[in-house]
Amino acid sequence: MSTFGERIAELRKSKNMTQETLSRKLNVTAQAVSKWERDESMPDVSLIPCLAEILDVTTDTLFGIEKKSVVEYRGTNEKSFEKTVLKINMKSGGDNIKLNIPLPLLKTMNATEGITNLLNNGTHIPPFGFDTLIQMIECGADGKLIDINDDDGSSIVIEVV
User: 160 with 141: CB under 8 angstroms?
Assistant: First the structure.
């Protein structure tokens, strides 16, 4: 497995680009690029999207993240996992909460625990297993997945759009 710096060097060279050229495009010094490629330092987080665009790769590729493609599980006419949004609507005690969360963000940030706590705070609705929901969606589940209404008027609707 290559390091972050090795990936930058390999991708830069595949574009026939010098460290100097890359540094100018990112408005950093050539020495900074050299340090990145030797794994002596890392680029500022704000540069990562620009670096990925210049090298014509995704940020996941820069970081060496290999993820399963869900597109192969879904039909060719269906939306890809990367474009899937988890839509959550919650009503509790007069409050209405609406969340639209891109699935890759939910999965990457491992934010499911925080969202679970938010949704279950102050309601009588049982806790969810978001990891299970994500697995279902990766296998092609679509549409309204959860529709729960409590006697006190609390409700949660979770759907894939």
Answer: yes
Q: What one-letter code names the amino acid at 49?
A: P
Domain map (residue ranges) of the chain:
4-62, 81-160
CB 42 within 8 A of CB 36: yes
Structure tokens at 18: 């010098």
Class of domain 4-62: mainly alpha
Separation of first and last alpha carbons in the chain: 36
pLDDT digits (tens, 9 = 90+) for 57-105: 988 888 887 754 443 344 444 556 677 887 888 887 778 888 887 877 7
- Cα–Cα distance, 76 to 144 (Å, whole number): 21
Predicted TM-score of the model (pTM):
0.44
